[in-house]
């Protein structure tokens, strides 16, 4: 019995180590603060550990834990008012995420700070995490229609942010952004 528990613990540890950078980046984009993001990921990892036998049987354990993360974030927003987002996304994704190192990062984070929490969740999950509408709906615990509505409103508000428009204009003119 001790060997089985040890194997489960090792399997959970391997999962957490492999998925931590992606979860941290998503949490940072949702929460907007490094400490809050680390807290969210730690909390999600604790819940996943407690339910590891169920999580590991899921079709996509990462999606299961991401859902826990989004739910934790939603609960925190209900309890306290939003705070301003900071100017830098931690570069925890290594070479897989070239956009995270671009000049547009600061402007995007400032623009994300202007979105209400549900719109920010929809935009981050749908376009940053590149989830489908149905996957985003599952992660947010709402309908596909609600995801489309939140995402469309969020993208509409982001399009109105002048700093993002200026970056787009520089790119179209031929600047290296």
UniProtKB/TrEMBL annotation:
Any one GO BP annotation for this protein: DNA-templated transcription initiation
UniProt family annotation: Belongs to the sigma-70 factor family. ECF subfamily.
Keywords for this protein: DNA-binding, DNA-directed RNA polymerase, Sigma factor, Transcription, Transcription regulation
Superkingdom of this protein's organism: Bacteria
CDD domains linked to this entry: Sigma70_r4 (cd06171)
InterPro entries per record: RNA_pol_sigma-70-like, RNA_pol_sigma-70_dom, RNA_pol_sigma-E_actinobac, RNA_pol_sigma70_r2, RNA_pol_sigma70_r4_t2, RNA_pol_sigma_r2, RNA_pol_sigma_r3/r4-like, WH-like_DNA-bd_sf
Name of the molecule in the record: DNA-directed RNA polymerase sigma-70 factor
Domain RNA polymerase sigma factor 70 region 4 type: 106-155
NCBIfam families: SigE-fam_strep (TIGR02983), sigma70-ECF (TIGR02937)
A GO term for molecular function: DNA binding
Domain RNA polymerase sigma-70 region: 21-80
GO cellular component terms listed in the entry, alphabetical order: DNA-directed RNA polymerase complex
């Amino acid at each position: 019995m001790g060997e089985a528990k040890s194997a489960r613990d090792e399997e959970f540890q391997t999962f957490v180590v492999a998925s931590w950078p992606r979860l941290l980046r998503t949490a940072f984009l949702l929460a907007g603060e490094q400490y809050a993001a680390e807290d969210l990921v730690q909390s999600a990892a604790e819940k996943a550990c407690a339910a590891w036998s169920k999580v590991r049987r899921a079709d996509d354990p990462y999606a299961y834990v991401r859902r826990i993360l989004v739910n934790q974030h939603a609960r925190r927003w209900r309890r306290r008012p939003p705070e301003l987002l900071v100017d830098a996304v931690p570069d925890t994704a290594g070479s897989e995420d070239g956009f995270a190192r671009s000049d547009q990062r600061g402007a995007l984070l400032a623009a994300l700070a202007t979105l209400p929490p549900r719109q920010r969740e929809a935009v981050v999950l749908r376009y940053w995490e590149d989830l489908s509408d149905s996957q985003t709906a599952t992660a947010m615990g709402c309908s596909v229609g609600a995801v489309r509505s939140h995402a469309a409103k969020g993208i509409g508000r982001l399009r109105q942010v002048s700093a993002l428009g200026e970056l787009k204009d520089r790119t179209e003119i031929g600047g290296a952004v």
